[in-house]
Amino acid sequence: MKCAGFTLIETMVVIVLLAVCATASAPVFVSWRVRDQVDARTNALLGTLSYARSEAIRRKVRVSVCRIDAARHCLAAGKNCPSGRADWSCGWAVMAERAGMSLLLRAQPALDEIAVASGLTMLTFTPPAGQAIGSLRNFEIAPRAAAPSMRGTGWRRCIRMAAGGRARVSDGACGAVS
Q: Given this model, what pLDDT does residue 134 score?
């Protein structure tokens, strides 16, 4: 009587081939995940800016987008995130000003793996047209990776805000101050 099955040598060859394939494909999956996080963070900020502008027009009040701390309060200029970073990676919030009070409309949580650099600490939209107040209105989104291969302009996104309050995204660095 003959038994069907695999020998130990055949099984070991298959395991070695699977290990080689997994080792070769791991960097591709890491790169894909990081690029996806950069794109997701870019789209989240772009959506937040669009939402803030539309709320300023709809509510007829000043609406601001600001960096926030863990308690969802706006961080003052020069104050670092709870993580110790001075960028927008600690998250941001949309605040409407009504009768001297700030009302939280929306908040985006922190994501330390992705750097969101800008010279701004707050961006305010004014009614009736939703214009943005401030001069340099750029946001540069990039991975905070240690790998040199992830430091090129292909890994960066730039959000540029026009004076009229409309934002657009472009690939590459935009020269935002970190």
A: 63
